[in-house]
Amino acid sequence: MVARVIPVSPFDLVIFGATGDLARRKILPGLFHRFKVEQMPEDARIIGAARSEFDSAAFRKVVRESLEQFVGEADRPANTVEQFLERIDYVNVDAMGDKGWDALSDLLREDKVRAFYFSVTPSLFGTLAEQLHKRGIATPESRIVVEKPFGHDLETAKALNADLLKCFNEEQIYRIDHYLGKETVQNLMALRFANSLFEPLWNSTHIDHVQITVAESLGVEGRGEYYDNSGAMRDMVQNHLMQLLCLIAMEPPSRFEPNAVRDEKVKVIEALEPVAPDDIVRGQYYDWNNRVGYKDHAGNPESRTESFVAMKVAVANWRWAGTPFYLRTGKKLRTRMSEIAVIFRDPPHMIFPKMEGRRGNALVIRLQPDEGITLRTTIKEPGPGGMRLTEVAMDMTFDDALGEDLHAQDAYERLIMDVIRGDQTLFMRGDEVESAWAWADPLIENWKNSTQRPASYDSGGSGPEESMMLMHQDGRRWRSVGQ
What sequence ranges are listed for the domain Glucose-6-phosphate dehydrogenase NAD-binding (predicted)? Predict the structure, then answer.
């Protein structure tokens, strides 16, 4: 199978914060990959904008070093790198002042798509939007890309939305969540809505429960102060896990277009029941061998911020009544993995006695590290000697099934190209962000007012024992982290 590459229109992409970690690690390498496969047109241009006292030549050196560090040698032919660097410019811009804005305006072309990527601290989002607007740099067709975190709570999210909407309309604002750019996440929509096999079964009559796990093997070393003001709820659940939950639980949209898809996602969030205190577990990792843990990495011995959250969530609508969703995310777990597991109910009458109580059917959507889809089914074990049943997995790992030519893109590659196309389907709408915060805020506020501390769990494990009991009390079990 050969990958189809559909070129985008000529564009000027301005990256604010172009010398920062995200730009060097993800944005610039992603753009290089799109250039290499000829998705970027000849006259596309990338303009770095930051406080660093660089000229274009110095910034091109930064870009080259970024590619050498984050793009494999075999994937960056020397001549392609040189051609890519020819499309790079740089402007020293003071976001809070006057410096550099006229120079930036002079670089931009009238007849090209203009996109502005805010790869900066969220406190500058509103300021940058205002500068672009009042200086006439942003046109009515321009787009801005806003990185998470989008607000710290409902109040700040509303304020940020209001600031951006003073200068840009909703159709110009692209709130990026890189999880929505993952190949498997998009395949989830294709799996549900392009196949008659699954959609008739996609309800509480046939699905026992759903597990969503995002596990990380690293701790918060190096970003402990930031993380301690955020925690797993704000950092992962309110955005990444919420987006996965929406795609699993949403009703089929009337058509595959941005607002139709996002309308259905908002309906899911608004249908979420409040989470009971007994249905949520918080944890902090600790390494008993080295006597060091989350509090040490956060630099706060009194911290009650969670590095792990597990919860049971109910969607109050006809499709999902009686089918719980179990969400789990944490730092310093056994391995790095993200997956959605849809566990189907047992047949209503089991004619094979030895199979009673065993849930054999599971659809597992793997987001990382090996993107793919697995369907676990029950079959007869080969050989004579009676009817012995066993479980097998029909595995579609994308790299294996589709071949090297269709090696999965990085999420940022796909999402940035969607910005240039003007396609908002995989980006969050303002009311969607606010609805997610409205659901999450009461949980965070309850923790703030509680005297209960997060449970300790072993670094390199599966999380607190209390999270296991969250499932066991319902007669269910978590899938193993790293299974």
Answer: 14-187
